[in-house]
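Chain A, query sequence.
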Amino acid sequence: MQTTFPQLLLKHASERPSAAAMREKEYGIWQTLSWSDLATMVEQLAAGLHQAGLRRGEHMVVVGANRPRLYATMLAVQSLGAIPVALYQDAVSAECVFPINNAEIRFAFAEDQEQVDKLLEVRENAPQLTHIYYDDPRGLRNYAQDGLLAMDALQAAGKAYAQAHPHFFKDAVAQVHADDTAAMFFTSGTTGNPKGVVHSHDTLLNRARAGADFDHLTHAEEVLAYMPVAWIGQNIFSYAQWLSCGYVVNCPESAATSTIDLKEIGPTYYFAPPRVFEGLLTSVMIRMEDASAFKRWMFHACMGLAKRVGPSLSSGAMVSLWDRCLYALGNLLVYGPLRNNLGFSRVRVAYTAGEAIGPDLFSFYRSIGVNLKQLYGSTETAVFVCLQPDNEARADTVGVPCAGVEIKVDASGEILVKSPGLLRGYYKNPEATAEVLSADGWYHTNDAGFIDAQGHLKIIDRVKDVGRIRGGEFDGAMFAPKYVENKLKFFQHIKEVVAYGDGREKVCVLINIDFDAVGNWAERRNLPYAGYTDLAQKPQVYQLIKECVEQVNADLSRDTLLAGSQVSRFLVLHKELDADDGELTRTNKVRRGFIAEKYQVLVDALYQGLQEQFIETQVKFEDGRTGSVSATLKIGDAQIFVPVKAAA
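Chain A, predicted structure.
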């Protein structure tokens, strides 16, 4: 049985040489790469890298969007017993310095001029980075830096070497073993320098196979690879499972065209974090607001039926014949066209992970016939820890443990995991490894949760984030910031939320509006605005957001465990939270502690009962320049509802 990524490549190339392995959209046309062609490309790149001096055990950086040659480079690196390290393509040069120095990297793959410029800048602090290979030559004609070479030239040199040494590639692949290090993924580094998570071929492929067996994946699946390769979620779905199953991975032309490309491909197996599903739903709701009165009526009537009947149908529960007929009509008129418009008409299995998804958002997709499910895992567990069976997908759980996984909850409520997919350790960081891996093999997830009566895992929040309200009418009540944030983010007008309340007498939140959704809402009401900052502070926008907050408060009041997490005060930030400004990680998770320090004056104003607060904030633009944004922010108060249990 093939146990490494390069061995699986050769297996597919031998058994299905002409079958499609990857597609890439270029200049509006989909180009297909067969398994045989891919294997040839990998052999040539591996030979070229070997000739250039890349050796077993070394690390090589790859940075860029999903592209066939990027995937081929990772396979070529692994074929030599070396280790690919993917970095986020939108990371600034300063963020790349630590990983490159930490892993003592000499070789790098760069997609285009932007990434080349970044790596050349990194060289100032990482002089050992001597070899940089680029894929797209546009804009690089006059670059003459030492060690900078086109991938075409590397591949040509490798082709000549492979012809002179016909057994080199297969011999090299045969020397790579399942327990060899296959890849390293750097964490987002929310509390310091990122940590390099080390995985072997076996840990990654074991979890890839477990997920594939769970959902009965075959080589007939179609996948769209549009998320960063540096994120292990994308890496598992479009690399580890791709090579394990032999299905087709499709690379969109660009991030801007990914929604269009999604519709063209019509994937059968789809993966996205909640933010993507939120964005798709927001686009639908914006279009519906612009539709005719009759279409809006039909949409809302059918969605009401779907919300009532859809979950029961998807879980196999009993539904009356009349409701089945009505749902079939709704499917013909609304649900089917809607799935097609979203690009989900062929989706057999869709997963969301990375953070909790709002229950209403989850129910929306399930109710229109999209088999959306949740999974639980992390970079350290090679993703697959828990998965939801098709007929047991629920918004409040993340599924049941998948093959080979053991779960227990310690006295503090922290979830501990044993799995064949656990990391080998953090690179050059035994202290951090010892903190998360116990001597008897249990991984500390730092997530708080429990196993329910049906055997499903429920996640409450991060252990370090779960807190208590101190003082006031909810003294001692549990405060789960992520839960509150996700409930607010379901609303199409809200893009991001940061909640505070641990150790305080009430909960307050900072909110980012969704500029497109709120802008469309404002335009239909003839409400003029001069950009994000101006729009965010409109009284009408504050009233809109207040209604969203109070609706969430009403929902929370019916939850005896989290009624104390109702939001008392809120403000709408004058700028969008941005990873370039350090406010989000590269996987778009809020850095709550950093934001609290950066916007301390705003947090203080919320808790001091002020009605407005001036703030000036430095921002970083895409071209590296810095500027500032200032505004006097209004602060809103929201209604708090008496908990249902207390009122009874």
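The first strand starts at residue 20 and ends at 26. DSSP finds 22 helices and 29 strands in the chain.
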